[in-house]
């Protein structure tokens, strides 16, 4: 629009696309410079009013930001409006400034595209548009600017490719296109820019490799291609840029080895190759870079030794080799031992380096050492104080041993001391108190011991202290309150004892306090109310006691409180001043009173754990507002009243534990809507009514315990839909009806308890499908009837089976012998009859008493099995009788053996046949283990097979029984 | 350049200050290491939050009263990946139930450190390699079910020391050599070893080496 208006009274009117006319009519256009400038002005928003003086009433050369050709009035050569907060678009009218040589609109808030019309400004030598919000692509017309020396248009939102036409700007010395969204490849045409000294293309999304034509940029001093997606090898021609001072290829995808030719860049002061995929060793040639001040090869896959010698690289200040695959030791000659080293910062973290760090003591100028995450060993050298300039010392995640020496106190500039996760022993030297600048002291996960020296409280700059996981004992220093800047105090898992010092309340900046897992005693000091910044406080596993100071309610920034496993008592209210709580864990204390409804003000609560206290009253319905709650544990208190149906609004609940209270009423059916629930424990309450079938909707449930209540009705078959269930415990209720066969679908159950109810009907054979049952199948103390299903023999992992105190009848199925994992069995007090299968005889008699059973471990099965109990005398008589008979039998047996031996084959066959028919009613496998098995055992192999299922004394009694039977037969024979 | 240097320093400060104060619970760390190894399409390990004080509220993990991990139940959970040595740090574990999954790799020898283990159920996976001798250190072990895997090598003779072993099932593998006869092996039925095509039956002591034919 601007162009059209400015030319509307000239012959240009028809040539609004062809600016050449204006160039031809240069005198006219020169004369309209003020008008063009005013059009530029009109397109801009000028918050600081720097353009307010731009008016035709004043000489254009006096306008702010305008430079004119000296002597010749009115010929504008310079426009500099950098950094005035200008917004709006760059008006194409700017092309009317035909005499202009320099435009600087950088560091404003300009938007819109770069006007292609700029291409007509043939006198332009400098164009600075960087640090705006310009959009669109780079106009190829800029390639027309034959006199352009400096083009800096980076730090905008330009996209698209770099126009190859820029290769025509043959005078170009500086090309700055960094920090845009440029894509595509680096145009090979840029290689024509023989005068180019600075090329900055960093922080774009350029792809492809470095074009070999770039070798033509022979004047390059500064080359930055960092933070793109460039790939391929680093070309060796880079070594020919003899004036190159700075080379930055960081954060690309360059691969291959570092070209040794880089060692020829004798002017190089800055070399940054970090964050690529470079491999191979560090070329020894790099040691020839005598001017080099910064060398960063970090975050590559460089291997081999640290072959850098700061003794040769006399100007090196920064050496960064972190995050590679370097191994071996730090070279002895890293720094020449003549205090001439300039090396200030050494970063070797995250390699495979080993050995000691004594070689570093020669680098007298060091300010930062980071050798963390390696395999360094040995002690922290006492001579570390030969590095008086040290500010940062990071030795963590290595295998340093020995004690921290008193010389550490001489490092008076030290701000960061990070020694965590080593094997350090010994105490903290009291000299640490001299480190007045120390901000971070991380000693965690070592084996340090002794007391925390009082002198530590002299380190008044300390912001973070972490001693977690050591063996410090004794009290927390009483003057800890001197550490006014302390934000993090982590002393967890030591052996600290005594009270929490009242002065801790003076650490007003404290945000995180972790004193858990110690032996602290006493009450929480009243001064805690001053810790207004406190967000995380964990004191669990101590012996802290007493009621909490009411003033704690003033702490409004608390987010995480964990006081579990202490002896705190009294009301919870002091902990509920914050509405930002996400975790409130007070398990196993002696808190009393009600659960205050205000707890529900913290709508972001994730874990509310109040189990094992003395809380009374009802569960507040307001807990239903905690829609992000995952864990609600109110177990083992004295809570009463109903389970509020509102809890079903806590849709993210994974654990709901209300067990061990005095809750009454019914199990709310709406709990079935808690689809994330994995654990539901309502046991040990006084709940009534039925088990809601809706619980079958909690499909992720792993543990369901409703035991020890007064629940009635039958077990809903919908429980069978809980196919993830591991544990189902409905013990000790008043449930009636049959065990639903649908339980077979819960095929991940490893524990099933239904005892002490009034369940009736048969044991569903389907329970034999629960092949992962392991801990126990307990159906005892019900009214179950019918036979024990043979299918239970499939429960090969079952360790305990309790079917006692029911009305089960029939014989014990021989299939139970397949329960090879069984070590607890109770079938007592039923109506079972017949012989105890021999393979079960290793279980004690108590497992079988109260039935019509016989055979070991009970009394042997006689012709008429005695149903009544035998008196002691009778037992003695019987045993003596058996012994006598046995003796006779032994003799008879020996005799028989001799007789039988000669016609063994015939006897064996005939007996076998007889047994099979006699015990046919037991089913296929049963006969093998029946009464006459001794004789049925026809070969040594099956003899040993029998032994497998009985052991020790039981075997003897079985044998005794069997022999006597045989004696009777032998007599008959 | 100054910016670069500043960035490096910042990186140091950041690295130092964000280094996590690792939880004291070695058991939680060990379990979390397992989680990192496993591919878990059904999300059964979703609740395994390493920032919690201990793993006792993680699903499929059971603790005793002293918050020590005693059971790990990941049977039939459609997890794949390798078991890894970290589980050897769960020294209080009594039940290790990893059956019916797609676990591959070897049985880590570190499982021999689980002194309290009663049940080792790794059956029906895709485990390869040998049965580690170190499992003979599991003095409390009653149940060892390694059947239906792709295990190779011989049955370690040291297992005869496992005096509490009540059940062993090594069937359906690719084991070789002979079956021990000493100690608890005198009572194990042959079906515990069936379908190992290169297994040569009970050991004939003194006649042939136990790994004959391996």
CATH class of chain B: Alpha Beta
**What percentage of the residues of chain A does DSSP assign to strands (E)?**
15-25%
Class based on secondary structure composition and strand pairing of chain B:
alpha/beta
Strand order, sheet with most strands of chain B: 1-2-4-6-7-9
Low-confidence stretches of chain B: 1-24
Rg of chain A (C-alpha, Å): 45 Å
Mean pLDDT across all amino acids of chain B:
86
CATH architecture of the domain at 773-860 in chain A: Alpha-Beta Horseshoe
Gap between N and C termini of chain A, in Å?
A: 130 Å
Please describe what this structure looks like.
The complex is a heterodimer of chains A (973) and B (214). By secondary structure, chain A is an alpha/beta fold. In chain A, 11% of the residues lie in helices and 21% in strands. Chain A has a 33-stranded mixed sheet, with no helix packed on it. In chain A, strands 32-34-36-38-40-42-44-46 form an 8-stranded parallel sheet, with no helix packed on it. Chain A has a 5-stranded parallel sheet with strand order 55-57-59-61-62, with no helix packed on it. The longest helix of chain A is centred in the last third of the chain and has 31 residues. Chain B is an alpha/beta fold and 214 residues long. Chain B has one domain: Ribonuclease Inhibitor (Leucine-rich repeat, LRR (right-handed beta-alpha superhelix)). The chains are: A alpha/beta (973), B alpha/beta (214). Chains A and B meet through helix 8 of A and helix 1 of B. Chain A: Keywords: Leucine-rich repeat, Membrane, Repeat, Signal, Transmembrane, Transmembrane helix. Chain A: This is Leucine-rich repeat-containing N-terminal plant-type domain-containing protein. Chain A: It is found in: Membrane. Chain A: It is a single-pass membrane protein.
């Amino acid at each position: 629009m601007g162009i059209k208006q400015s030319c509307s009274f000239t012959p240009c009117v028809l040539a609004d696309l062809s600016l050449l006319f204006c160039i031809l009519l240069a005198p006219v256009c020169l004369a309209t410079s003020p008008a063009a400038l005013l059009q530029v002005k009109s397109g801009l928003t000028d918050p600081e009013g720097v353009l307010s003086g731009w008016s035709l009433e004043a000489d254009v050369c006096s306008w702010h930001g305008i430079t004119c050709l000296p002597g010749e009035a009115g010929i504008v050569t310079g426009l500099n409006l950098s950094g005035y907060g200008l917004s709006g678009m760059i008006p194409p009218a700017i092309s009317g400034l035909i005499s202009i040589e320099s435009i600087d609109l950088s560091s404003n808030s300009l938007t819109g595209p770069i006007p292609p019309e700029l291409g007509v400004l043939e006198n332009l030598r400098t164009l600075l548009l960087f640090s705006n919000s310009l959009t669109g692509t780079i106009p190829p017309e800029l390639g027309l600017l034959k006199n352009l020396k400096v083009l800096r248009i980076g730090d905008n939102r330009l996209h698209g490719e770099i126009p190859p036409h820029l290769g025509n700007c043959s005078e170009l010395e500086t090309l700055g296109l960094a920090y845009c969204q440029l894509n595509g490849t680096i145009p090979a045409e840029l290689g024509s820019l023989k005068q180019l000294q600075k090329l900055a293309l960093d922080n774009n999304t350029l792809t492809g490799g470095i074009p070999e034509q770039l070798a033509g940029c022979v004047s390059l001093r500064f080359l930055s291609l960092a933070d793109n997606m460039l790939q391929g090898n680093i070309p060796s021609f880079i070594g020919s840029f003899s004036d190159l001072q700075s080379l930055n290829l960081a954060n690309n995808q360059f691969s291959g080895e570092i070209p040794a030719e880089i060692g020829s860049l004798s002017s190089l002061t800055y070399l940054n190759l970090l964050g690529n995929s470079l491999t191979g060793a560090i070329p020894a040639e790099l040691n020839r870079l005598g001017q080099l001040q910064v060398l960063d090869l970090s975050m590559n896959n460089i291997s081999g030794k640290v072959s850098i010698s700061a003794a040769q690289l006399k100007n090196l200040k920064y050496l960064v080799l972190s995050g590679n695959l370097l191994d071996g030791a730090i070279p002895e000659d890293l720094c020449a031992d003549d205090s001439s080293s300039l090396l200030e910062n050494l970063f070797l973290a995250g390699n495979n380096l080993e050995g000691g760090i004594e070689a570093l003591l020669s680098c007298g100028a060091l300010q930062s050492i980071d050798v963390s995450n390696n395999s360094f060993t040995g002690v922290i050298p006492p001579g570390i104080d030969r590095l008086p300039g040290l500010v940062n010392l990071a030795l963590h995640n290595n295998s340093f041993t020995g004690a921290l020496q008193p010389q550490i106190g001489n490092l008076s500039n030290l701000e960061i001391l990070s020694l965590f996760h080593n094997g350090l022993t010994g105490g903290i030297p009291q000299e640490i108190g001299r480190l007045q600048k120390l901000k971070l002291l991380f000693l965690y996960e070592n084996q340090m011991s002794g007391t925390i020296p009082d002198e530590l409280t002299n380190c008044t700059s300390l912001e973070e202290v972490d001693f977690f996981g050591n063996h410090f004992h004794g009290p927390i220093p009483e003057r800890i309150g001197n550490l006014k800047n302390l934000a993090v105090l982590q002393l967890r898992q030591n052996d600290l004892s005594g009270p929490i010092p009242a002065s801790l309340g003076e650490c007003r900046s404290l945000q995180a306090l972790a004193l858990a897992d110690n032996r602290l005693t006493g009450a929480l000091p009243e001064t805690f109310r001053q810790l207004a910044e406190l967000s995380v406080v964990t004191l669990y596993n101590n012996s802290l006691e007493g009621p909490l100071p009411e003033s704690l309610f003033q702490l409004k920034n608390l987010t995480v409180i964990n006081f579990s496993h202490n002896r705190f008592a009294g009301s919870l209210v002091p902990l509920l001043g914050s509405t930002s709580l996400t975790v409130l864990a007070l398990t196993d204390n002696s808190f009393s009173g009600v659960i205050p409804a205000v707890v529900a003000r913290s709508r972001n609560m994730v874990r509310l754990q109040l189990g094992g206290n003395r809380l009374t009253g009802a569960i507040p319905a307001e807990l239903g507002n905690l829609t992000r709650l995952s864990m609600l544990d109110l177990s083992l208190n004295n809570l009463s009243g109903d389970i509020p149906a509102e809890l079903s609004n806590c849709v993210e609940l994974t654990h709901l534990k209300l067990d061990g209270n005095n809750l009454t009423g019914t199990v709310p059916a709406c709990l079935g809507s808690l689809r994330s629930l994995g654990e539901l424990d309502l046991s040990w309450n006084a709940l009534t009514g039925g088990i809601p079938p809706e619980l079958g909707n909690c499909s992720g449930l792993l543990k369901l315990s409703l035991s020890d209540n007064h629940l009635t009705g039958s077990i809903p078959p919908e429980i069978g839909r809980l196919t993830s269930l591991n544990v189902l415990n409905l013990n000790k209720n008043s449930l009636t009806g049959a065990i639903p066969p649908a339980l077979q679908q819960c095929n991940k159950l490893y524990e099933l308890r239904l005892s002490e109810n009034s369940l009736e009907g048969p044991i569903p054979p389907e329970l034999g499908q629960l092949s992962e049952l392991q801990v126990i199948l307990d159906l005892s103390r019900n009214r179950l009837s019918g036979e024990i299903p043979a299918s239970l023999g499939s429960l090969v992992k079952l360790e305990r089976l309790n079917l006692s105190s029911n009305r089960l009848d029939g014989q014990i199925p021989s299939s139970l012998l397949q329960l090879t994992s069984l070590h607890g069995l109770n079938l007592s007090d039923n109506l079972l009859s017949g012989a105890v299968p021999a393979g079960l005889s290793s279980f004690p008699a108590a497992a079988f008493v109260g039935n019509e059973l016989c055979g070991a471990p009970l009394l042997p099965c006689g012709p008429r099995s005695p149903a009544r109990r035998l008196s002691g005398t009778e037992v003695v008589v019987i045993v003596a009788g058996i012994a006598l008979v046995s003796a006779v039998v032994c003799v008879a047996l020996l005799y028989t053996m001799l007789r039988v031996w000669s016609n063994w084959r015939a006897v064996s066959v005939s007996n076998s046949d007889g047994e099979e028919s006699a015990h046919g009613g037991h089913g296929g496998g049963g006969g093998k283990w029946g009464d006459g098995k001794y004789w049925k055992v026809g070969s040594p192999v099956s003899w040993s097979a029998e032994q497998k299922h009985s052991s020790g004394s039981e075997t003897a009694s079985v044998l005794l029984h069997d022999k006597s039977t045989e004696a009777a037969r032998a007599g008959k024979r | 350049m100054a910016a670069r240097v500043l960035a490096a320093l910042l990186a140091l400060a950041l690295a130092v200050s964000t280094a996590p104060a690792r939880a004291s619970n070695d058991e939680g760390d060990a379990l979390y290491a397992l989680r990192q190894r496993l591919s878990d399409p059904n999300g059964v390990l979703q609740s395994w939050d390493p920032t919690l004080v201990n793993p006792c509220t993680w699903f499929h993990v059971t603790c005793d009263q002293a918050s020590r991990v005693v059971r790990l139940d990941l049977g039939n959970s459609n997890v794949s990946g390798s078991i890894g040595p970290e589980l050897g740090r769960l020294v209080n574990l009594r039940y290790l139930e990893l059956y019916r999954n797609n676990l591959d790799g070897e049985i880590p020898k570190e499982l021999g450190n689980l002194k309290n283990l009663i049940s080792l159920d790794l059956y029906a996976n895709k485990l390869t390699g040998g049965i580690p001798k170190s499992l003979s250190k599991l003095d409390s072990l009653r149940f060892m079910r390694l059947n239906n895997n792709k295990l190779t090598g011989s049955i370690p003779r040291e297992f005869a020391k496992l005096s509490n072993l009540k059940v062993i099932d090594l069937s359906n593998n690719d084991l070789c050599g002979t079956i021990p006869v000493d100690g608890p092996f005198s009572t194990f039925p042959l079906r515990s070893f069936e379908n190992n095509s290169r297994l040569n039956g009970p050991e004939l002591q003194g006649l042939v080496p136990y790994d004959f034919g391996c």
